[in-house]
Amino acid sequence: MSFNSRQYEWGDMTLVLGGRDVTGFRGIKYTEKGEKEPLFAKGRHAHSIQTGNITVEGEITVLQSELIALEKAGNGSVIGLNVDAVVAYGNPSLGDAMTTDRIVGISFTEAAKEMKQGDKNMEITIPFIALAVVNQA
Could you tell me the superkingdom of the organism this chain comes from (predicted)? Predict the structure, then answer.
């Protein structure tokens, strides 16, 4: 039995957003959050942990050209877009097992643009909420 401890690298990531391979993305972050709280009854200690809603939120960091492409797809704004994303980690040519997450129902919540003196490019972080993350290992 062999064990491969190779870690994923930035160059091993692929992002497909709305069916389009996004080559100008600089970062992605997504989180699933679950509401949980202790259930108290008789005594001082909780009897169980109760669960509630699960939410998904995150952000995609892209170059200006990618934001422009998204704005065109959204008729001038990314706020009205509703897309799915596929995030793939791994490089099969190096023997990696592919790990794929599908982020379902992404809806962007804002799109702020900013540049400062000395910047060589515009990098935009676009926050989003989504319906679910489906792990497709």
Answer: Bacteria
Q: Which residues contact 38 (CB under 8 A, 6 or more apart)?
A: 46, 48, 49, 50
Tokens read off for 49: 């942990």
| Ranges of each domain in the chain | 10-135
H or E segment and range at residue 111: none
Tens digit of pLDDT at every position of the chain (137 positions)? 555 566 778 888 999 998 899 999 999 999 999 999 999 999 999 999 999 999 999 999 999 999 999 999 889 999 999 999 999 988 777 777 788 999 999 999 999 999 999 999 999 999 999 999 999 86
The second-level CATH assignment, the architecture, of 10-135 is Roll (2.30)
